[in-house]
Amino acid sequence: FSSRRRHTRFALARGLGDVYKRQDDSCIKFYIGTDQTVDSLINLSKKKYQAVITYAFWCKTSRDDLPGILSLLRENKDLVDVYLICSDSYDKIRYNYFYLKNHLYHYNPTFLLDIDYYKSDRNSKRMTKFIKAICPDCKTKKMGFASIIIFNQGNYLTHTNYNMDYKTKMDILKGLMMEN
Asked: 148: which strand partners?
């Protein structure tokens, strides 16, 4: 545990209590988290849907798909809680901040996967472990960055993956939102 990494981790780490206190402020919130953290928040959610979105600011699919997906979910924020999950290392937080700020994403927390918990320095391995834990029914070989897992009040409903084109992902999300 290097001094810089420990300092960054300390600066980011916070309890879950303040996640819901000020959702309307314009601050982009980062938390170090695990599948257990996100699962707890999913189960606490009072909204009809919970969307877990995995992304990476450097991934072309994420850059292409995320703005439209976030816009649609923002339009339906009364129906869905959104949890962005990033497996980048802690030293990439600055890039993540500017990426999210450019897409006006600031009403829900973003989670950086805990490097020590997942015991891997590789982004893809941390993300695969996270997805397998949060969604045992998901096909993790086709999932990764720019994937969406939808839960309906804590129960797994459906998911997308990076092999799906943008239109298919949006059709799935729009279909869910139209059911209401």
From this structure: 53
Q: Compute the distance between CA of residue 45 and CA of residue 150 in angstroms, rounded to an integer.
A: 13
Question: Residue 33 in 3-state DSSP?
Answer: strand
User: pLDDT digits over 74-101, tens only?
Assistant: 899 899 999 989 888 888 888 888 888 7
45: exposed, middle or buried (Cβ count in 10 Å: 0-12, 13-18, 19+): middle
Least confident of 3-17, 38-52, 120-134, 146-160: 3-17
- How many CB atoms neighbour CB 176 within 10 A? 19
Residue with tokens 């009364």: 78
Tokens describing residue 158: 């459906």
Whether 149 shows a pLDDT value over 60: the answer reads: yes
